[in-house]
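Design review, sub-item: ligand-bound model
Attendees: FS, YL, KQ
YL presented the inputs for the zinc ion complex:
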Amino acid sequence: MGTIAKQRTKQSKTKRRARKLQSAPNHELVIAALRRTEKPLTAYELLAQLRSRGISAPPTVYRALDRLISEGRAHRLESLNAFVACAHPHQGASAMFSICRDCGTAEEFSAGAIDATIADWAKKAGFQVDRAVLEIRGACSDCGRSRTLEHA
Ligand SMILES: [Zn+2]
Ligand SMILES: [Zn+2]
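KQ shared the predicted structure:
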């Protein structure tokens, strides 16, 4: 019995390797593009970047994004209508971002206290949270600093 199990493992490993040799699936191309930049990208910016990789239709990009978001590997920033790669695995359902109005970078951070507050409230309200994205707009430390220097 052990031998059969071993053979099966070997087979699936070979299959996995074969799949890797083929062109990467669309959602892998999309997440790779998001990871290359610190700025959130719109679906159309993604499309422009991925055209040379064979992705030419907006629905393909949207399908890939839907999948990545449901897998927790990417987030949608509502205020920008743009997408970012998830910076770290998170336990809670919420994702928190600081978005710089000047340079456009979006940084993901986690705050356990905010997670706990949302969980607490949801429990009391009987609300089932699918996901929560907190967006904080302002100036990042680099841009905030240069502005202070300008006015000095
Ligand atoms: Zn995340
Ligand atoms: Zn900035």
